[in-house]
């Protein structure tokens, strides 16, 4: 028996090796969607294959610390397979692979999963998860237990030694340039370096690494350089124009797609404006997904390449740290700052992040009225022009309005319903793939509707009695199976932008830019004074000596370092941000009954399903500016059975509103998170009700 126990670690280690070798092949097949391509990759890069296996091997050795080793092996293997399968599914919808940051997006992902998967696919996924859980429980109960001494100290030393070897293996691979720890392009990195390494790197690689030469002296030198930046002599700053920036979801001019021709231009307004105004290609940090990083670069001037692999700063550092941005710059000039998004306010944590970026108000879909939906049930952009004007008309000051659209979002359907939806745009010369042509037809019709709103907004602004500058751009290309050869400009990471103004003699200065350079371009054209990163972008161009080193030092200093560039103190605090423009409030509560027809509020057709009406007993909540996202909030939670009647009336079918109780109305999105509440309304029953003065619809009111 003792002899067998002595051999056990070697036997167990051998088992880990075999599992790792097989498991990595499976992960690569899942990621590449091809058995043949996987073995070609392994044959061409055996060193990288073995390196990825070593990472998996290390995780498997953790099972040696428990007596139920078979269960441990299976548990770790299932986790790897779950990540691999998720990556395979994700790559069916977008070009960017699955990374650790996506796990932080789980809550938001669950709210839109029905837009990507059918009911059957969701059910299959649920059954698969349940089956995996059942198998793990069964294995835990039934799997054999190692008897005798499992030598935990010796095994721990072995695991630690394995970890050290993997780290040395990693350093060797980086030094020999077999792999890289700097992922400029996540999809390319996964393809070159393997899933196990790239995903593991995304787990530990978060934030901006401290530059080797970062110091107080270095930042003082950079500060002196930035002080030499000059404000442009453009004459328009004296007019203090309102500035509107609109980020268009998955927006592109389809005429750039090689071989694709439509029966008419899907985006005639955009085509006209980019021909008449300052315009150019705009290099984005993502394709098919990653909207938050596109807007982060645009708003801050930061290059996200210096952050971790696949990282969304919105989900990490900006969840607790204020940052210099266009919004903070406009606030310093006396502007009111507004953000608008016609989708869930919690998506990418915008409802929290925007306060750290300096916005005064944020209007997500939970505060928008009259939202309609596409056939894929994304919110249409037709509400955005009205919301933009609502924001500008709400203040006496000039306004900066940053708007994020959503209508063009994928996934695009493989069949379309022409009986119930108008599709004026059709494929004239297609791809040769009927399903893909159908998806292009749907997508181009969504573009056409988005373009109509562009024209509608510009027409209204031409008559606006205040000076305005408008910037519009696509956040990334749509998630089709593109290559660089698929577009005539040869770069899948390029969208387009234009800058329009109703001011006379506004210049036309076409230029191709990075997303993080567009804010500087805008300020130069108007003549606004620049903040830190804009000074850098006006002094340095990509390729200049020291460009990357200086930019990385500045970004690190601002978000992670000692902020040496700001010797007088960090000037950006957490902003007090209000949700919505029109105040939502309760004006009265009265008991009563309501006749409810089950199914009457289902669907988009406005027709009630055949059902017997119900007479409900409860309370009418009277007030102002309610919408379908308004819910009664009592006893520390919102009531999901609240019935929206009209903008001034809700009905709550419950009996737990009692005299002396404070009642609120909360705005609740798809993920059941309430984004702001009304002032508390004190219900007195037969007496006189009152409203307290506490503002509930704000965030980060320090």
What does this structure look like?
By secondary structure, this protein is an alpha/beta fold. It folds into 3 domains: 2-204, no CATH class; 245-507, Alkaline Phosphatase, subunit A; 585-699, no CATH class. 38% of the residues lie in helices and 16% in strands. It is built from 20 helices and 22 strands. A 10-stranded mixed sheet has the order 10-3-9-8-1-6-4-5-11-22, sandwiched between helices. Strands 14, 15, 18, 19, 20 and 21 form a 6-stranded antiparallel sheet that branches. It starts with a helix and ends with a strand. The model is unreliable at 4-9 and 602-608 (pLDDT under 50).
What Rg do the Cα atoms give?
28 Å
Q: Which fold does the CATH topology of the largest domain refer to?
A: Alkaline Phosphatase, subunit A
End-to-end separation in angstroms reads 67 Å
Task: Tell me the name of the CATH class of the largest domain.
Answer: Alpha Beta
Helicity range: 25-40%
Taken from the alpha-carbon principal axes, the silhouette is: globular
Q: How many discrete domains? A: 3
Secondary-structure class: alpha/beta
Per CATH, the architecture of the largest domain is 3-Layer(aba) Sandwich
Strand order of the largest sheet: 10-3-9-8-1-6-4-5-11-22
How many strands in all? Answer: 22
Q: Give the number of helices.
A: 20
Unreliable segments (pLDDT under 50, ≥5 consecutive)? 4-9, 602-608
Q: Specify the biggest β-sheet.
A: 10 strands, mixed
What proportion strand? 15-25%
Provide the CATH superfamily of the largest domain: Alkaline Phosphatase, subunit A
Q: What is the overall pLDDT average? A: 88
């Amino acid at each position: 028996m003792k002899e067998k126990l002595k051999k056990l670690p070697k036997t167990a280690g051998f088992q880990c090796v075999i599992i790792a070798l097989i498991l990595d092949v499976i992960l690569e097949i899942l990621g590449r969607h091809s058995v043949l391509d996987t073995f070609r990759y392994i044959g061409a890069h055996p060193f990288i294959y073995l390196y990825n296996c070593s990472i998996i091997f290390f995780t498997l050795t953790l099972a040696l610390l428990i007596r139920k080793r078979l269960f441990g092996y299976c548990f770790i293997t299932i986790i790897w397979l779950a990540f691999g399968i998720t990556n395979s599914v994700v790559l069916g919808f977008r070009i960017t692979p699955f990374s650790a940051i996506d796990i932080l997006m789980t809550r938001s992902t669950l709210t839109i999963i029905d837009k990507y998967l059918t009911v059957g696919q969701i059910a299959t996924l649920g059954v698969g998860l349940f089956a995996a859980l059942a198998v793990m429980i069964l294995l835990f109960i039934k799997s054999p237990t190692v008897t005798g001494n499992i030598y935990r100290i010796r095994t721990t030393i072995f695991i630690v030694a394995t970890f050290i070897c993997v780290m040395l293996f990693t350093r060797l691979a980086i030094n020999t340039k077999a792999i890289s720890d700097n992922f400029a392009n996540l999809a390319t990195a996964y393809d070159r370096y393997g899933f196990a390494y790239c995903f593991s790197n995304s787990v530990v690689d978060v934030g901006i690494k401290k530059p080797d030469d970062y110091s107080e002296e270095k930042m003082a030198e950079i500060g002196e350089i930035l002080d030499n930046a000059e404000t442009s002599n453009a004459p328009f700053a004296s007019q203090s124009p309102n500035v509107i920036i609109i980020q268009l979801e998955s927006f592109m001019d389809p005429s750039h797609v090689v071989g694709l021709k439509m029966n008419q231009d899907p985006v005639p307004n955009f085509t006209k404006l980019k021909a008449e105004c300052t315009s150019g290609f705009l290099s984005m940090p993502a394709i098919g997904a990653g909207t938050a990083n596109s807007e982060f670069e645009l708003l801050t001037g930061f290059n996200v390449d210096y952050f971790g692999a696949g990282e969304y700063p919105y989900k990490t550092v900006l969840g607790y740290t204020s940052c210099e941005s266009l919004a903070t710059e406009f606030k310093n000039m006396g502007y009111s700052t507004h953000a608008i998004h016609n989708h869930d306010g919690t998506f990418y944590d915008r409802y929290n992040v925007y306060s750290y970026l300096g916005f005064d108000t944020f209007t997500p879909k939970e505060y928008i009225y009259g939202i309609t939906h596409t056939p894929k049930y994304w919110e249409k952009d037709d509400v955005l022009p009205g919301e933009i004007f609502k924001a500008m008309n709400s203040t006496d000051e000039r306004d900066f309005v940053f708007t994020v659209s959503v209508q063009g979002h994928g996934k695009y359907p493989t069949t379309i319903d022409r009986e119930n939806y108008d599709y004026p745009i059709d494929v004239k010369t297609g791809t040769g793939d009927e399903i893909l042509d159908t998806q292009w037809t749907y997508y181009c019709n969504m573009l056409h509707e988005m373009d109509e709103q562009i024209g509608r907004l510009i027409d209204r602004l031409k008559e606006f009695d205040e000076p305005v500058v408008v910037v519009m751009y696509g956040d990334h290309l749509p998630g089709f199976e593109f290559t660089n050869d698929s577009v005539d400009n040869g770069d899948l990471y390029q969208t387009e932008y234009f800058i329009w103004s109703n001011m006379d003699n506004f210049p036309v200065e076409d230029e191709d830019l990075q997303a993080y350079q567009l804010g500087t371009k805008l300020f130069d054209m108007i003549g606004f004074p620049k903040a830190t990163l804009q000074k850098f972008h006006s002094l340095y161009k990509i390729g200049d000596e020291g460009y990357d080193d200086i930019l990385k030092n500045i970004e690190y200093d601002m978000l992670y370092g000692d902020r040496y560039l700001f010797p007088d103190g960090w000037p950006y605090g957490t902003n007090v941000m209000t949700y919505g423009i029109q105040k939502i409030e309760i004006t009265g509560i009265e008991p009563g009954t309501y006749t409810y027809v089950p199914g009457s509020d289902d669907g988009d057709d406005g027709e009630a399903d055949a059902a017997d009406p119900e007479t409900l007993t409860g309370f009418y909540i009277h007030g102002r500016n309610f919408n379908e996202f308004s819910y009664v909030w009592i006893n520390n939670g919102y009531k999901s059975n609240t019935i929206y009647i009209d903008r001034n009336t809700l009905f709550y079918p419950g009996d737990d509103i009692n005299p002396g109780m404070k009642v609120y109305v909360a705005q609740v999105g798809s993920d059941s998170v309430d984004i702001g509440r009304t002032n508390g309304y004190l219900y007195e029953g037969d007496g006189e009700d009152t409203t307290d003065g506490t503002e509930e619809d704000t965030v980060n009111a320090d």
